[in-house]
Amino acid sequence: xxxxxxxxxxxxxxxxxxxxxxxxxxxxxxxxxxxxxxxxxxxxxxxxxxxxxxxxxxxxxxxxxxxxxxxxxxxxxxxxxxxxxxxxxxxxxxxxxxxxxxxxxxxxxxxxxxxxxxxxxxxxxxxxxxxxx
Length: 133
Description:
The protein is an all-alpha fold. It is about 40% helix and about 0% strand. Helix 2 crosses helix 6 and helix 4 packs across helix 6.
């Protein structure tokens, strides 16, 4: 393959990623339909896995990353980010509608189709894991 062909493929990949970060996407799952409890151990596993073509959370949320917030201490601050939302609700929307609230210093680059790729239980499990961080 020529360099031009490789460049075209690279541009197409960037366009696909940008399209997946559309800020207007609404969740396919309602917060009220979320299971009451999640399994944090299963959430830890899900955090590192690509599921149904959705990228793993650990692909971006790593210590020292400049494009995404580090998650150490997340559970302690999640309930303070948005007035009127507790930590669990904030975390739900951070996963399924990431453009709803952008942490200062970061842009709107998070994948926004997790509610279409993960089950309600998967999301509850991720929330349980993240709130332990």
